[in-house]
Amino acid sequence: MQRLAHTRIAFLVLALSLAACSGKSSGHVGQGHDGGDTDAAANSDLQAISDLSMADAQSGQDQQPGCSVAPVFTWRAAAITDTAGKVHINVVQATNGGLTGELVLYVGDEADLMSLPKVRTIQGTIGQPTVDGSFVVVDGKSYGLLSATITLNYVTSPLSSEIKASLSDLVFQETACVPTQNDMSSSCTTGYVAGCTFTAPASTLDTTVANGTACASSTDCGTNGKVCDVMTSLCASSECSSDTDCGTNKLCVTQHAPVSATDGVIAKACYAKCNPLVASSCGTSATCIRPIDRPPTMGDGICLSDGPGAASGPCSQQVGSNSTGCTTGSLCVGVGFGPGGQMLACRATCDPFMTDPGCGAGSRCFNGICAPAAAGVDAAALGQPCTATNSYCADDGKAYRGFCANPFGMGLMCRPFCELGSVCSSGSCTAGGGAPLPSCI
Questions:
Q1: In angstroms, rounded to a whole number, what is the distance separating the alpha carbons of residues 7 and 9?
Q2: CB 257 within 8 Å of CB 293
Q3: Residues 347, 434, 427: CA angle, nearest 5 degrees
Q4: Residue 91's closest CA among 142, 119, 52?
Q5: Which of the four, 83, 167, 284, 311, has the lowest number of CB atoms within 10 Å?
Q6: CB burial of residue 248 (10 Å; 0-12, 13-18, 19+)
Q7: Average per-residue pLDDT in the chain?
């Protein structure tokens, strides 16, 4: 199954309503639901998986002269991180398409987190930033976290996206630095000044996901061993460990594979099986895609339902989605990066093992997608010596049919790609050997 940017972090959502420079905040804050934009360090493909409820807070002090009322902030994406056994909750705040704040809250050593609840008080001093390095920006001014209390009530083992915690006594103090959008973590460390302050209301967060929760992708189900069931679009416990667990004409495919110590556990789901070389094998309103958690194998494809994105147009596919995100025959893929993170677009699907994959002039079938012809392709034909290693070769104007490799010291040549289970005219179809796809060796 196509997954975008395998580096996936466990995300939380935190919606805060802050009144700047009044000593205490006022008003009621609702719930936040979307993933929003984040900086590159927090991952370009971010998706929110939970809501945060806020307690009411009443204003009780006069506003300081020269201090203005803060806008409503939405804390959108957070990650549980573990560095050398030190566990932090990172919460990134984004407004107007730019990064405008971050909380980095140390909650304790990993070895201590199995004994809960755990309460930690963060306390800075005027003139010195807190060791947690948390900040927000209001009306062009930077405010550092002066004090806070975090109570951790629930985590999983291993650590995952599921957590229950509460925040209280969040006090922010104006800093001396001038923040640079999207680069405040390094620039806002010059200490506090005798300026405006504000207090955020107490908040609670719960990112646990129950089986039966509606989902569109595995992202909606977190990283604690749950999948988004293909047939019901509901979160469920991991469904299989091998194809045989799924029954006839189905494949067991990875929806989530952990990439860090805080990214939960592997989770797999059952998909309807199809033949990638037969365009109609999924019927109507679905497209046959080769799963990416295994080498190309004869007859092994999975059916993904069609989505709303028009061919060659923009799309909004979530990581681990059960849909292609696009109309029949197209797939939502990353096509570059912009100010808001990774850019996505619908691209025509193809199969490089077809005689004619169906890509237009100037395009080649590459990794299952019709893409512009690439530079640096070796001119060698299949079975002929190559001039460079690790290059595609055998460009017939429709697809790159081979790869320049020297498996097991057998000689550098253009070796033809093949599907596992197929018969090679010379050698046998083997995964590995220095090529990105199985090849005849």
A1: 7
A2: yes
A3: 100
A4: 52
A5: 284
A6: exposed
A7: 75
Q: Decide if 60 contacts 23 (C-beta within 8 A).
A: yes
Tell me the HSE value of 132 on the side-chain side, using a 13 A CA sphere: 31
Helices (H) and strands (E) in the chain, counts: 1, 26
In the structure encoding, which two tokens stand for residue 211, read together? 């089986």
User: Could you tell me if 428 and 420 are in contact, meaning their C-beta atoms sit under 8 angstroms apart?
Assistant: no
255/265 Cα distance (integer angstroms)? 11
388 C-beta neighbours (distance < 10 Å), count: 11
Nearest to 371 by CA among 310, 312, 289: 312
Residue 17 pairs in a beta bridge with: 72
The distance from CA 278 to its chain's CA centroid, rounded to whole angstroms, is 31
Residue 421: count of CB within 10 angstroms of its CB: 12
For 101-165, give the DSSP string: EEEEEEEEEGGGTTS--EEEEEE-BTTB--TT--EEEETTEEEEEEEEEEEEEEE-SS--S-EEE
pLDDT value of residue 105: 76
- Measure the CA dihedral 427/432/433/439, to 10°: 40
Q: Summarize pLDDT for 102-152 with one digit per residue, the tens.
A: 677 777 787 777 788 888 887 765 545 444 556 677 667 777 777 888 888
Distances (CA, A) of 111 to 60, 79, 85, 259, 403: 41, 19, 7, 20, 47
- How much is the average pLDDT of 197-209? 78
Mean pLDDT, range 402-409, rounded to an integer: 91
**Tokens 């930690």 belong to residue:** 120
CB of 38 within 8 A of CB of 92?
Answer: yes
pLDDT recorded at residue 342: 79
Asked if 77 contacts 38 with a C-beta cutoff of 8 angstroms, the reply is: yes
Q: What single-letter amino acid sits at 354? A: M
Single-letter residue type at 131: V
Say if residue 7 is exposed, middle or buried (CB neighbours under 10 Å; 0-12, 13-18, 19+): exposed
Residue 336 tokens read as 């570059």
Residue whose entry in the numeric block shows the structure tokens 């493909």: 45
Supply the Cα-derived Rg of the chain in whole angstroms: 26
